[in-house]
């Protein structure tokens, strides 16, 4: 049965009533592209770029970054790759960056905050991305955005990096979609304004759950409370989707939540445009989507959004998938 499911993973994820949702893969290493393609992923919805920084004792060079991004962009072409700019510190601490001594790293100088304080590091990465973009279908995404000013600053630096390359006569492209991770509650609140600045939102449900519920995603003592199906998280997702629809901004989920087949009725029903997940989950998630009706899922998601507890949400989900039991 598994072999059949895997074979069918090359067919698009189209519901019984003809609605197709784009399913993509998350990767950390260029090598993982093979499994995304093998499991039927329609592009890379999240390229976590931290690995090249974490696996060594110094910051990588522009050339090293460019070469890896170009390889990824070329391999997955014509499908897109969403390159997420550096999301270090927080749960992914960098030993050689002097800023890593913090009491609350998850609330500290991580991701975009780190990059905006270290323009030398950020510029190097942005130049690498811009150069690679000339060779494929690249999208750029900024992590941990908490407000409009960070997006404006990041976009300004991207422009500056392009101007440098232009002046130096180095080939590059800046003709690509720009997006942000929506994973900090303030970004959900400000989504309406953030929508004016970007082409897409990608909801990072791992961090959005952590920050919304004030539960450390890596702390075992509170792991039993950590659940992306919390009604507050679901309502936030819905809010972002609604803003996206209103403003013509694509909305994706790239958190772990998108890797769970049982979540499909709710996610499909909330009308996400794209989902990006662990490559190994693609076949089962596709299979699940193909067995669903979009119009039924919509009605179902509307009911789930009325639930007030995690148990309320999960029991409705169980009943939807296994009605006779
Ligand atoms: C997330 O927060 O949901 C996410 C996809 O990013 P990461 O897990 O890398 O923080
Ligand atoms: Mg995150």
TrEMBL record:
<dbReference type="GO" id="GO:0008965">
    <property type="term" value="F:phosphoenolpyruvate-protein phosphotransferase activity"/>
</dbReference>
<keyword id="KW-0418">Kinase</keyword>
<keyword id="KW-0808">Transferase</keyword>
<keyword id="KW-0479">Metal-binding</keyword>
<feature type="binding site">
    <location>
        <begin position="206"/>
        <end position="207"/>
    </location>
    <ligand>
        <name>phosphoenolpyruvate</name>
    </ligand>
</feature>
<dbReference type="GO" id="GO:0009401">
    <property type="term" value="P:phosphoenolpyruvate-dependent sugar phosphotransferase system"/>
</dbReference>
<protein>
    <recommendedName>
        <fullName>Phosphoenolpyruvate-protein phosphotransferase</fullName>
        <ecNumber>2.7.3.9</ecNumber>
    </recommendedName>
</protein>
<keyword id="KW-0762">Sugar transport</keyword>
<feature type="domain" description="PEP-utilising enzyme C-terminal">
    <location>
        <begin position="4"/>
        <end position="291"/>
    </location>
</feature>
<keyword id="KW-0460">Magnesium</keyword>
<comment type="similarity">
    <text>Belongs to the PEP-utilizing enzyme family.</text>
</comment>
<dbReference type="GO" id="GO:0046872">
    <property type="term" value="F:metal ion binding"/>
</dbReference>
<keyword id="KW-0963">Cytoplasm</keyword>
<feature type="binding site">
    <location>
        <position position="207"/>
    </location>
    <ligand>
        <name>Mg(2+)</name>
    </ligand>
</feature>
<keyword id="KW-0813">Transport</keyword>
<keyword id="KW-0598">Phosphotransferase system</keyword>
<comment type="function">
    <text>General (non sugar-specific) component of the phosphoenolpyruvate-dependent sugar phosphotransferase system (sugar PTS). This major carbohydrate active-transport system catalyzes the phosphorylation of incoming sugar substrates concomitantly with their translocation across the cell membrane. Enzyme I transfers the phosphoryl group from phosphoenolpyruvate (PEP) to the phosphoryl carrier protein (HPr).</text>
</comment>
<feature type="active site" description="Proton donor">
    <location>
        <position position="254"/>
    </location>
</feature>
<feature type="binding site">
    <location>
        <position position="84"/>
    </location>
    <ligand>
        <name>phosphoenolpyruvate</name>
    </ligand>
</feature>
<feature type="binding site">
    <location>
        <position position="217"/>
    </location>
    <ligand>
        <name>phosphoenolpyruvate</name>
    </ligand>
</feature>
<feature type="binding site">
    <location>
        <position position="183"/>
    </location>
    <ligand>
        <name>Mg(2+)</name>
    </ligand>
</feature>
<dbReference type="GO" id="GO:0005737">
    <property type="term" value="C:cytoplasm"/>
</dbReference>
<feature type="binding site">
    <location>
        <position position="48"/>
    </location>
    <ligand>
        <name>phosphoenolpyruvate</name>
    </ligand>
</feature>
<dbReference type="GO" id="GO:0016301">
    <property type="term" value="F:kinase activity"/>
</dbReference>
């Amino acid at each position: 049965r598994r072999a059949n499911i895997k074979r069918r993973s090359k067919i698009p994820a189209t519901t019984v009533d003809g609605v197709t949702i784009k399913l993509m893969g998350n990767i950390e290493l260029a090598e993982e592209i093979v499994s995304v393609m093998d499991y039927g992923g329609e592009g890379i919805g999240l390229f976590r770029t931290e690995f090249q920084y974490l696996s060594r004792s110094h910051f990588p060079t522009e050339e090293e970054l460019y070469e890896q991004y170009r390889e990824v962009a070329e391999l997955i072409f014509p499908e897109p790759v969403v390159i997420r700019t550096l999301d270090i510190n927080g749960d992914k601490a960098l030993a050689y960056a002097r800023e890593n001594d913090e009491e609350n790293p998850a609330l500290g100088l991580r991701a975009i905050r780190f990059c905006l304080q270290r323009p030398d590091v950020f510029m190097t990465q942005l130049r690498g991305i811009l150069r690679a973009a000339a060779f494929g279908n690249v999208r750029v995404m900024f992590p941990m955005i908490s407000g409009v000013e960070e997006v404006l600053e990041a976009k300004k630096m991207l422009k500056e990096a392009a101007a440098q390359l232009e002046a130096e006569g180095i080939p590059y492209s800046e003709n690509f979609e720009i997006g942000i991770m929506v994973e900090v509650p303030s970004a959900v609140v400000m989504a309406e304004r953030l929508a004016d600045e970007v082409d897409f939102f990608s909801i990072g449900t791992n961090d959005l759950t952590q920050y919304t519920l004030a539960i450390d995603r890596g702390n075992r003592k509170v792991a039993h409370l950590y659940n992306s199906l919390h009604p507050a998280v679901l309502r936030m997702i819905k809010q972002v989707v609604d803003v996206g629809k209103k403003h013509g901004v694509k909305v994706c989920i790239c958190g772990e939540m998108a890797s769970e087949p049982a979540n499909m009725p709710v996610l499909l029903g909330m009308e996400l445009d794209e989902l990006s997940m662990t490559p190994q989950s693609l076949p089962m998630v596709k299979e699940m989507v193909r067995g669903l009706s979009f119009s039924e899922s919509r009605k179902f998601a509307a009911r789930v959004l009325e639930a007030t507890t995690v148990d309320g949400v999960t029991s409705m989900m169980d009943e939807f998938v296994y009605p006779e039991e």
